[in-house]
Design goal:
Shape of chain A: globular
Helix content of chain C: 25-40%
Shape of chain C: globular
Distance between the termini of chain C: 45 Å
Largest sheet of chain C: 7 strands, mixed
Bound molecules: thiamine diphosphate, magnesium ion
Helix content of chain A: 40-55%
Strand content of chain A: 5-15%
Order of helices and strands of chain C: EHEHEHEHHEHEHEEEEHEEHEHEHH
Order of helices and strands of chain A: HHEHHHEHEEEHEHEHHH
Structural class of chain C: alpha/beta
Structural class of chain A: alpha/beta
Number of helices of chain C: 12
Oligomer: heterotetramer
Largest sheet of chain A: 5 strands, parallel
Radius of gyration of chain A: 20 Å
Amino acid sequence: MTDIPAGLTRAQLHELYYWMRLTRSLEERLVSLYRQSKVVGGVFRSLGQEAGSVGSAFALDRRAGDILSPLIRNLGSILVQGATPVEVLRQYMAKATGPTRGRELNIHFNDLNRGFLGQVSHLGDMVPVMCGVTMSFKMRREPRVGMVYVGDGAMSTGAFHEGINFAAVQRLPLVVICENNGYAYSTPTRHQTAVQFLVEKAAGYGVAGEQVDGNDVLAVYECTRKAVDRARRGGGVTMVEVITFRRSGHAQHDNQSYVPKEEIEAWEARDPIDRYVRRLSEHGWASPTELMALDQRVGAEIDNALMLCEDEPAPDPASALLGVLASEPAAPLEWYRRL
Amino acid sequence: MTDIPAGLTRAQLHELYYWMRLTRSLEERLVSLYRQSKVVGGVFRSLGQEAGSVGSAFALDRRAGDILSPLIRNLGSILVQGATPVEVLRQYMAKATGPTRGRELNIHFNDLNRGFLGQVSHLGDMVPVMCGVTMSFKMRREPRVGMVYVGDGAMSTGAFHEGINFAAVQRLPLVVICENNGYAYSTPTRHQTAVQFLVEKAAGYGVAGEQVDGNDVLAVYECTRKAVDRARRGGGVTMVEVITFRRSGHAQHDNQSYVPKEEIEAWEARDPIDRYVRRLSEHGWASPTELMALDQRVGAEIDNALMLCEDEPAPDPASALLGVLASEPAAPLEWYRRL
Amino acid sequence: MTVVTYLDAIRDGLREEMERDDRVFLIGEDIGKFGGAFKVTEGFQERFGAERVIDTPISETAIVGAAAGAAHMGLRPVCEMQFIDFLSCAYSIITNYVATARYRADLKTPIVIRGPSGGYVRGGPFHSQNPEAAYLHTPGLKIVAPATVRDAKGLIKSAIRDDDPVLYFEHKYLYRRLKQDLPEGEEILTPIGLARVAREGKDLTIVTYSAMVHKALEAADQLSDDGVSVEVLDLRTLLPIDDAAIMASVKKTNRVLIVHEDTRTGGLAGEIAARINEQCFEWLDAPVRRVCAHDVPLPFAPTLEDFTLPQTDDIVAAARWMVRY
Amino acid sequence: MTVVTYLDAIRDGLREEMERDDRVFLIGEDIGKFGGAFKVTEGFQERFGAERVIDTPISETAIVGAAAGAAHMGLRPVCEMQFIDFLSCAYSIITNYVATARYRADLKTPIVIRGPSGGYVRGGPFHSQNPEAAYLHTPGLKIVAPATVRDAKGLIKSAIRDDDPVLYFEHKYLYRRLKQDLPEGEEILTPIGLARVAREGKDLTIVTYSAMVHKALEAADQLSDDGVSVEVLDLRTLLPIDDAAIMASVKKTNRVLIVHEDTRTGGLAGEIAARINEQCFEWLDAPVRRVCAHDVPLPFAPTLEDFTLPQTDDIVAAARWMVRY
Ligand SMILES: Cc1ncc(C[n+]2csc(CCOP(=O)(O)OP(=O)(O)O)c2C)c(N)n1
Ligand SMILES: Cc1ncc(C[n+]2csc(CCOP(=O)(O)OP(=O)(O)O)c2C)c(N)n1
Ligand SMILES: [Mg+2]
Ligand SMILES: [Mg+2]
């Protein structure tokens, strides 16, 4: 049995496996709920990208109060930060009991205490917002780090540019995870930017840049961990390019006919979970029984979560009026509903 | 008499001098009109930056139909493109006869036939707009080039980012002149970006980058000319960083107390016109009499322009209603004016 | 005659104009090979080439700015917003640059910006917006919002031919649900600036537009059963507002209900109510009232969305109140 | 008592709140060493340090987004727009992120965004804007616009203490022209949401705000000479609108003129007119009318600007028409 890299313990290696497996299985369950039309709206997969989400989030220190802001494909990241399967199921099924009480979709929810700040749909906006979050760390001399995810597509937005430039000038403790998964909806990365690799953009902002194999969870962890430590030390912003591939479509409705079959197959062969399992076994870091136990735990947790919430009620219609302003209990009920 | 660089003729060398002198003298005249409060609004100087504007614009081919979009300090650029002193005076004095009939300020005016497209105040917006202008060149297979000016400050805007990235992906025939004049209003460049030089941003967009001494008009011409030729050849976007200094304040009202005296003095010693005069004389490219003749021509042209327009009327008030929409002759006169 | 959907009509209108006028081109995200998120431009890139059907990075400001620049040079760009909710990312360049270009600088800027708007589709707060109110306030823009298959085609064609910048808000709920027979080969051009009487009536006028026209017509049917005769005015163009058509109907029915899907405060209905009050004060037998969405961001859950947005029953109840007044 | 200008009052309000509450910080362009384009924050960076008076790159979206993130963490940011015209560059993040944060995600976002708005200063189309109408339509925001020195101070202090995002639109024409004695040491807190009767009257109510309050008062003086008694209501808060105060005055005078500097179509006056019509229809002896700027981008030349913007004589003429009606 060879040494474990990146200063991780055996337990932590198992944890990484657990988070990736939980991410994939939970998404698979969401797809079947979607097919039974129990999900409201679409389902967005991170199939093949689980290592990028899990490995990067795992590099944060939750006890220190680090905070991340995910994108649609970072379910794994918020799970690592403490979001629970039942919360995710409730969001997708728009339950009254969900973290946003049915007001927002999928993983658009947050808990700053656990350390995740859900995004809005408008791509790029979370980069400036995470500037503010990390600015508060800096002002209060707290050794906390922020992390924000952007895709190859989101990096084309003005909001991304203004945010990362501001963070660079202020030397904020922010790690920017750039997920290069080959496509933005149907748009290949070469139509999104004239550079070959997203990491080439780092120098233009005067920030550190790293690139990593996004389908190797240990490599992602190790690389991101360096960036997190740099940020915590006051070393400022790092842009981490995670090279991976979006193996499922943009969302379940999208058969991604625009993606060459071979490309998908080539990346199937590099599946991050399969690779990690092989590595764990080869090095004797996890036994088949240990892995099976983890798989069972994942399955059980999802079953229980679904059992808990599947029949929960939809939000009370009139609750739609609550909480627009802090200073007013509710928005006025329209006159025509009072007739 | 030594060889003339950059394949220029003696006449062209004199032209370059003429444009720089015209720019400076016209601005000086504007300042005195401002002091007599004959100018409406502020006066923005390009003192010490004339070489950047004139040298870069001179690299365009007006016969080919090249078009540039200036910023507030690029009076020299639009003069080279054919804007006339009387138009500029009329704009600053808000005359009915001005190119915008008193609707817009200073050099916010345009003539696409002569090849300049005036900007709006919102920094960055002209980069996307010039993408469209140059896209039309490309679609029509016209060998025309576009040029857009941005300052060290304007490069922080989302509009700049979206525009140059789009131009890079489309390989548009666009030259982006980045004027690094040390300040954006009171903000030094180091508070605007974490890179030392603006040209470092070029690689992040996958475009060519050049840097040039902005107070050497021949160097600016030569460097920009390369970029223009590249664009015309289909070689795509070039970012040209012009290193210069804003020696006058942001506008006449600004005494720029925030700028160290020594810095200003150091740059006075590098005045682009003085340097060019020395160079012309040393190499025998222009005789004192020739230069004096050019000075006199400039003075006379400005005197005549001012004589022509100084007493011209202000716009007819009701003309404010005209031309909001193509489909309607005029906006409706408010009812209270009909009482 | 062939049965076409609201979405087909937009597609056909775009295609006809691109065939008619080679200055017309399309620009937006994923509109090329993919044909757009809703497949409005499916097959266009094969048909017209990649230079007339341009895929862009995720950069709404660049899309609109580039369209404006190309329009200055004589081209006729049509921008697609993948969802109209992302139009907000181009708010500054639209209101400051595009809308003012003609006025301040005599620049021709004949661009069209179109995209899917509206709710009732479980899209949540950022895929259901009705953005008209944010642009209503900007001199120099035109805004259209088709309610019918015929106008979906007629307005996109007229918008492309119009010399002013036009925001074309199509309603995604109607895309495939609304079908109509359209005569083949007929050139359909809906005039911009003119409303349409969708139903004649004498007791009450409902002024509305886009998807709400259909709810208003449903309501009118129900009301006719209890003998209330409702006139439904489909604005079609939201800016400039067709005051003449509105006032003509007001003078006929003396009672007005304004209905829109957008939230109440600061919405289009307020402007129309003010104009009616100014121009038809003496003709009003009852206060002008509004049926709009509740003043909240549009929530995601079906129960919440259905509660927040106006429904046919709401229009019926409000109309009954109006005629009883 | 000391004589302070409208601008001093904003500065004093900011300073008092920064002294009172160390969670309050300022962020904007050139506000540090330089003290801002209009010197509102002059001396603040020396006094409070560079971490509480933060100079930013030219990035309005980053300014607002960073403020929102810091506010989520318990801080109280005040953003300065160098000119309010550049607020449009942050339109998307304000309306989509900031305004909805509490509703969709229970996020506390107590930020203030302030800056110089308004015309009559020869600023041209991009340094004279009145942006309130573009935000009026957004549930989750509050908007205030002080007309007096006292409220300039009282509203900035209340805005900073408010738990909702507040847009604070100060009028640059008033900065140094408007002076008033303010008692030293008095804690001035103008309640957000409440209008103010600036002048009592019985024949006609003028509903207005910001710089136009002063033109309305001038008009009221002139009108009193021919025996017309005008009540002037200074809204102070534009969102939420103080319906109670408006309707109380309408029921008293039965005639309403709404005056704002902003252009007419889609402006705030339309919303108010609609509300009066809905809530006070029976009390109206004349149609509610509006005095607003002409529907054009604000031109630069003095002759054009003065023609485009409402003047005191216009209010007088309109008021005479109203009382004669
Ligand atoms: C400003 C903006 N424009 C358009 C969209 C529509 N949209 C949603 S996801 C997406 C593609 C995002 O691609 P990328 O950033 O690479 O993330 P990925 O889906 O690959 O994880 C687009 C265009 C949006 N959400 N925001
Ligand atoms: C989007 C936007 N924000 C703020 C301003 C206000 N403003 C006008 S000029 C200026 C400084 C510009 O600096 P730079 O781009 O370096 O050009 P320079 O004045 O140095 O030539 C600022 C902040 C603006 N015009 N546009
Ligand atoms: Mg991607
Ligand atoms: Mg500069």
